[in-house]
Amino acid sequence: MSTGHEPQQQPQQRDEATHRDEPKQRAEEARNNLDKAIRAEDQPIENRAPGAPFAIVGLAYLVVLALALLTIAILLYWIW
Question: Are 36 and 58 found together in one domain?
């Protein structure tokens, strides 16, 4: 006998379908974000911040120099 108060199956089925499609939607969104990152339409860094390339190169040079001096200092310490 039907009392008319039974839960309807339609919304639950729709929720299950949405729940099943959620990983697919996340994967599609991640793929779209990756495509945007690969095919960036940004301006070159020198147009956005004119001193940035020089700063990057200068800091990289200083880091390499510091590592080289540290290596030489450690070698000299162990030798003498």
Answer: no
